[in-house]
Amino acid sequence: MRRRSFDLRRPARRRWFDGQWGCVAVGGLTVLMLFLFLGRESKPRSPSLISQIMMQEPYRSSLVEALNITDEILSPLSTTRQLVDQISLAKAFVIIAKDNNNLQLAADLSFQIHHSQSLLSSSATLKTSPSPEESQLAIRNMASLLYQAQQVNNYDTATTIAKLKSKIQSLEEKSKSETEKSTKFGQIAAEELPKSLYCLAVRLTTEWFRSPNLRRKLSDSRRMAITEKFTDNQLYHFCVFSDNILAVSAVINSTTINSRQPDLIVFHLVTDEVNFLPMRAWFLMNDFRGAAVEVQKVEDFTWLNSSYVPVLKQLQDSQTQNFYFSGTGDSRTPVKFRNPKYLSLLNHLRFYIPEVFPELQKMVFLDDDVVVQKDLAELFTINLNGNVMGAVETCMETFHRFHKYLNYSHPLIRAHFDPDACGWAFGMNLIDLREWRRKNVTGIYHYWQERNSDHTLWKLGSLPPGLLAFYGLVETLDPSWHVLGLGYTNVDPKAIREGAVLHYNGNMKPWLKIGMEKYKGLWERYVDYSHSLLQQCYIH
Ligand SMILES: *[C@@H]1O[C@H](CO)[C@@H](O)[C@H](O)[C@H]1NC(C)=O
Ligand SMILES: *[C@@H]1O[C@H](CO)[C@@H](O)[C@H](O)[C@H]1NC(C)=O
Ligand SMILES: *[C@@H]1O[C@H](CO)[C@@H](O)[C@H](O)[C@H]1NC(C)=O
Ligand SMILES: *[C@@H]1O[C@H](CO)[C@@H](O)[C@H](O)[C@H]1NC(C)=O
Ligand SMILES: *[C@@H]1O[C@H](CO)[C@@H](O)[C@H](O)[C@H]1NC(C)=O
Q1: Superfamily of domain 6-21+220-524
Q2: From which residue to which does the signal peptide run (predicted)?
C-alpha cells in the first residue's frame, strides 16, 4: 500500500489549476454563451410551434461533438460536411413524416433543409465558409429537429426503421467517400470520429426504440436493486460529465476491470439531451462487471437556471455576448479561447456536484479523457484533512502558477490570492461533498463569478472562478494518482507505468487519429472494437 504524504500540505502556498485545463476551461463560458445566444436569436426564424419549443431550450446540445474543437469549428470543410450529412438525413425524415401524414414536421424539416442548403450555396458562391456562428446555428437547429423527428415519428414501425437504416447506410457510404476524399486532400483525420460518434448515437437511439427488452431492463426487479445503489454511501461513487459515449465507456470499463470489487462501484453519468438515450442504451446493453451505472441529462436539472447560476445570467447580457463574439474583448486573446464550442454546460457542472448528488457524501470526479489502471478503492480511504477536494499539484513548471491566470492589477485579486500559488489539476479528484456544502464552495464560486461581471478579474472561462472557490481547500494527492499530459507531451514512462489514472489532457485524444500512437494502446485496450455497433460506424 502506498502511503499518502498528508504533510505535503502547505497552507501558505495555494494551488492552482493545471495549465491545460486553464486553456480548455476558458472556452466553457463561451459555449454557454452560444447556447443562450442561439436560443434567443433563432426564435424568429423558426416556422412553427415545434421548432419554437425546441429553440427555447437554453442549452441545446450538439450532435457533432467537440473533439479537436478548434479545428472542428474553424475548418470550413468540416462544418460543410456536417451540414451536408444532416441534410441527407433530414430528407429521409421528410419522406417518413409525409408518409405518416405529419405535414407540420415535414414542413419544419424542409424549412431547415432549405436554410442549410442556402447557407451552403451562398458560401460556395462567395468561396468562403459560412461563419462559425451561422453554421453552428444551422447544425444545432437541424440536430434538434432530427432528434425531434425521431421522437415524433412512429419509430416502432418496421418500415420507419428500415427507411432510417437505409438512409443511415447511404449516409455512411457518403461519409466514407468523404473521408477518403478528405484524406486525399490532406485533411486531418481527426474529424472522422465526431461523425462516427454521431453514427453510434443514431444507431443506439434506433436500438433503444426498436428493442422493448432494452427498455424493459430499466424497470425489472434487478434494476430496482441497482437504483438503490445510487444513493448508498457505503459504495464507491464516481461521476463523469460527458457527451462522448465511447470515452465514458472506456473510463468505466478500465475502472471496473482494475477493481477488486467492481460490484461496489457506482458510476453517475450526466450527459445532454441528444446523447441521453444512446448512452442509456449502451450501458444497459453492456455489463461492466456488475458496476451500477446511472445516466442523467443536464436539461433535467431545472435548478440550473439563470436565476441561480451567475454565469447563465451574465450570458444573457448583450455586452457579455459582444465580449465573447465580437472578438474585440482583447485582440491578443488566441482564437482558441474565444471558441464557443470549447466546452458545454456539462463541463460547468463540476461546480455543482453536491447539488447534482444531494444524497451522497464522497465521490471521485473523473474527466472523460482518462483511463484507469489501478484499483481506486484506496483513493476513498484518503484523509482530506477537512479539505473539500483532493488533487495533484501541477506547478513543477512556473507556467502553472497563479499569476498566469489572474489580473494582479486588481486589488481584490492582490488582496486575496498569492501570485505564486501552485496549480492543481482537475480530471481525477476526490471530493468530500459534506465539506463542500459546509464550506459553501458553490456560494464562494458564485461570489467571484459575480465580481467578474466586467471581466476585470480574469478574461475568459468558467474555470477561474471555480479555482478561486477552491482556494485553500485542496488536499495534495500523491502524483501517481493522476498522471497528466498524455494528450500533448512526452510523459515519463515510469510515471505511466505506476500511474493509477492516466489523463489525455490536450488535443491529442486517444480516440482521434492524431492521438499519440505510443499512448493510444493504453486506452484502446478498454474499447471493444469488435462490437457490432462500433463496426457499423467505422470506429476502429
Ligand atoms: C488540433 O489542435 C492542435 C492544437 O491546436 C493543432 O495543432 C492541430 O493541428 C489541431 N488539428 C487537429 C485536428 O489535430
Ligand atoms: C431556478 O432555480 C431555483 C433554485 O436553484 C429554483 O428555486 C427555481 O424554481 C428555478 N426556476 C425555474 C424556472 O425552474
Ligand atoms: C452561501 O453563499 C451564498 C453567496 O455568498 C449565500 O447567499 C448563502 O447564504 C450561503 N449559504 C450558506 C448555507 O451559507
Ligand atoms: C485589471 O484590473 C484593473 C483594476 O480593476 C483594471 O483597471 C484593468 O483593466 C484590469 N485588466 C484587465 C486586462 O482587465
Ligand atoms: C472492456 O475491456 C475488455 C478488455 O480490456 C474488453 O475485452 C471488453 O470488450 C471491454 N468492454 C467493452 C464493453 O468495451
Answers
A1: Spore Coat Polysaccharide Biosynthesis Protein SpsA; Chain A (3.90.550.10)
A2: none
